[in-house]
Design goal:
This protein is an alpha/beta fold and 272 residues long. The protein contains 10 helices and 11 strands. Helix 5 links the parallel strand 8 and strand 9. The N and C termini lie far apart (49 Å).
């Protein structure tokens, strides 16, 4: 089983929290990385890595960066809820540029999707990877769109994609919701390795959460086919975090948490 990709790997969003972690971890594994972000890379460049400042709205720049790459780890774009106009450029148009580059290079896309693409499913539900999209925000809507674009490029052009619906990827969980949704940095890195190195992935969806006992919301993804089994767990934090909940009934009802509650204006008696 290979441990190093034959071709360079393009990592967008490299200057963000997750991008920096992945750049460090994958470089340690011996990968050749092309890093890009609209913001400067704040760390010393890892071995076998290069960095190019670029805007996802610049399709020509993205095409050039992807030349000769075998996979694109797409972590770039707006990563929190913002007004629609701010999400539109990097997360919608930018995603198109990523898939056009992948089509031209016959590269695989690993798309950092989000639980916010399905955030209006209730916490009482257990949903499979083929569930209905119920985005809880403009950010979540852009992630649902990204997965749909990946489906278009698979069926029309044969571009492989892995959609990783990331839960909450932080150094450690910080509230009760994250006891279910937390994804450790190490589990994320191991997942990215399997997404790139697995021989064939077709069109795959992964729930991006560690081995958390409270993760009862999500099931039936492609982790077995990829050979990924999360090794970390939020469970050791349960004692200190179990009671750390918000004061919003909307946030506590839906899987998307606070994103679902942002600017929520539906009358309280009209839930359907």
């Amino acid at each position: 089983m290979p441990t190093i990709p034959e071709k360079p790997v393009l990592l967008t969003g490299a200057s963000g929290a997750l991008g920096r972690q992945l750049a460090r971890a994958l470089a340690t594994e011996g990968w050749t990385l092309r890093l890009t972000d609209i913001a400067p890379f704040p760390d010393p460049l890892p071995a076998r890595a290069s960095f190019t400042k670029a805007d996802l709205n610049d399709g020509v720049a993205i095409l050039r960066l992807a030349e000769g790459c075998g996979a694109i780890l797409h972590f770039g774009g707006v990563s929190v809820e913002r007004p629609f106009e701010e999400v539109l450029g990097p997360n919608i148009r930018g995603l198109y540029h990523i898939y056009e580059a992948a089509r031209r290079e016959r590269a695989r896309v690993v798309f950092a999707s989000s639980n916010h693409s399905i955030g209006f499913h209730e916490r009482s539900e257990t949903i499979g990877a083929d569930c209905q999209f119920l985005p809880d925000s403009y950010y979540g809507l852009s992630k649902a769109y990204g997965e749909l674009m990946g489906r278009l490029y698979w069926f029309k052009h044969g571009v492989e994609s892995v959609f990783v619906r990331i839960g909450s990827c932080f150094p450690e969980p910080v509230d009760a919701r994250m006891l279910a949704t937390w994804l450790s940095y190490a589990d994320l890195s191991r997942l990215m390795q399997r997404c790139v190195l697995t021989e064939k992935v077709g069109l795959s969806v992964i729930w991006g959460a560690s081995n958390n006992a409270r993760m009862t919301w999500w099931r039936d993804d492609a982790r077995d086919a990829l050979g990924w089994k999360p090794q970390d767990s939020a469970d050791p934090f349960a004692g200190q975090l179990a009671g750390k909940v918000s004061d919003s009934p909307v946030a506590e009802r839906y899987q998307g948490g606070g994103f679902a509650a942002m600017e929520y204006s539906r009358p309280s008696d009209s839930h359907g």
